[in-house]
Amino acid sequence: MSTPAQYYQSLPPVSKFYGVACLMTTSALYLGLYDPWNIALSYQDVFKRFQVWRLITNFFFLGPFSPFFAIRLIMIARYGVLLERGPFDKRTADYVWMLMFGALSLLVMAAIPFLWTPFMAGSLVFMIVYVWSREFPNAQISIYGVVTLKGFYLPWALLALDLIFGASLMEDIIGMVAGHLYYFLTVIHPLAGGKYVLKTPLWVHKLVAYWGEGIQVNSPVQRDPSAGVAFRGRSYGLDGNRARTTTAPSEQNQTDNSARQPNSGEGVAFRGKSYRLSGH
């Protein structure tokens, strides 16, 4: 068995950073080092008092120490780590961009008065869980050792539990909306013949390179049966079942040959292709 220090060192960088940042934010509140409303999302303070840090800090506060806080932190440690080690393996910049896109989507939704919440960390965590559920729809999940269900239904089960416990459902729902928007733009829409418009910007690649953590390869990632399946063209129906397709042997050979070419047409991002820092 590994020690806590070994477990901490084994965590992938992005999930480790976000989880530790959320833990330190709540620990600082417990020590009375700040007023939580000084980091809450307030568009009035952002635009009138130029307190722009509120656009970022609200994503690191999961609330005071409580069972709710512990559950959200465990979600980061489990589903965030599984995403980063699976579909986003060797794609650290893409994972960072997914979180940035989710945060931007949530900020836009929060501009609508009835969707506004002061702290949106819970929504961002729920987005991570939703994307995981679409990547691993057939994974078997046990809820408190009582109910076993497929991963596809995990966000809905967590939503039902929050309803039973009397928690607000708004942050869960908008987190699922942000997660579905990301999955639609990166998987569903391109598979339907649309253009892949959510490519990770060059400055995010440079940021990850400057950070010096994680891996972002400059050549197509080798196939891994446990990672990146959805980004090679997997799609699922609303019932969580995988869509079946058949390919003739000659067409399969052509597909394999085109996959070896660096510029083989649309949808290359879904075969694990990454981009050099030069953007080519």
From TrEMBL:
- Keyword Metal-binding carried by entry: no
Composition bias of kind Polar residues appears in 243-264
Which keywords appear in this protein's UniProt record, sorted alphabetically? Endoplasmic reticulum, Membrane, Transmembrane, Transmembrane helix
GO MF annotation, one: signal recognition particle binding
Answer whether the UniProt record assigns the keyword Endoplasmic reticulum to this protein.
yes
| Annotated spans, Disordered | 234-280
Localization, per the record, is: Endoplasmic reticulum membrane
- GO biological process per UniProt: endoplasmic reticulum unfolded protein response; ERAD pathway
Instruction: Name the InterPro entries for this protein.
Output: DER1, Rhomboid-like_sf
One Pfam assignment? DER1
So where does this one cross the membrane? 17-34, 55-76, 96-129, 141-161, 173-192
In what way does this protein cross or attach to the membrane? Multi-pass membrane protein
**What is one cellular component GO term in this UniProt entry?**
endoplasmic reticulum membrane
**Family, similarity comment:** Belongs to the derlin family.
Function summary: May be involved in the degradation process of specific misfolded endoplasmic reticulum (ER) luminal proteins.
The name of this protein is Derlin
Tell me what organism the protein belongs to.
Gossypium hirsutum (Upland cotton)
